[in-house]
TrEMBL record:
It comes from the Bacteria. InterPro entries: 5hmC_binding, EVE_domain, PUA-like_sf, THYN1-like_EVE. It comes from Pseudoalteromonas caenipelagi. Pfam families: EVE. Signal peptide: none annotated. This is EVE domain-containing protein. Residues 2-147 form the EVE domain.
Amino acid sequence: MAYWLFKTEPDTFSIDDLKALGSQGAFWEGVRNYQARNFLRDQVKLADLVFIYHSSCKVPAIVGIAKVIQQAQPDPFQFDIQSDYFDAKSTKENPRWYGVTLEYVKHLRPITLSAIKANLEITELALKKAGRLSIMPVSEREWHVLCPN
DNA sequence: GCCAACGTTGGC
DNA sequence: GCCAACGTTGGC
């Protein structure tokens, strides 16, 4: 089992929105970055655990945990000409973009970006560098540093 | 709202 | 295939 961190803008889709969907979970659509896509398509597996991180908001922070309940599927919005996520270069035979489905697990007391940056135990997490990656791996060790239970 | 960092696009 | 221009992300 692997660990991940997914970013979301809470004004668009927050952990509370995820919680409200209950056991049906939420399809994580709209990832349009190749590195993030590769993680989603190739490495994110059923039952992996995911930190939900709120970005572009007052206090950027890890706010809770979700789990993967369905592995990668083509993101249907890439075929929807009405959607902001439409991609004219993607075909059904060879889709470019994928998403997974997440189910809410629990809230955490927010682990703020400033606390993560200040934590000397955290050295690998891509969030620490000024990266803009929206899906990133978290090592098992660093997961447990951030979330001791 | 500003702007630095970085990914993507497109001309050559 | 290089790289400048451009667009987007996301912290502050």
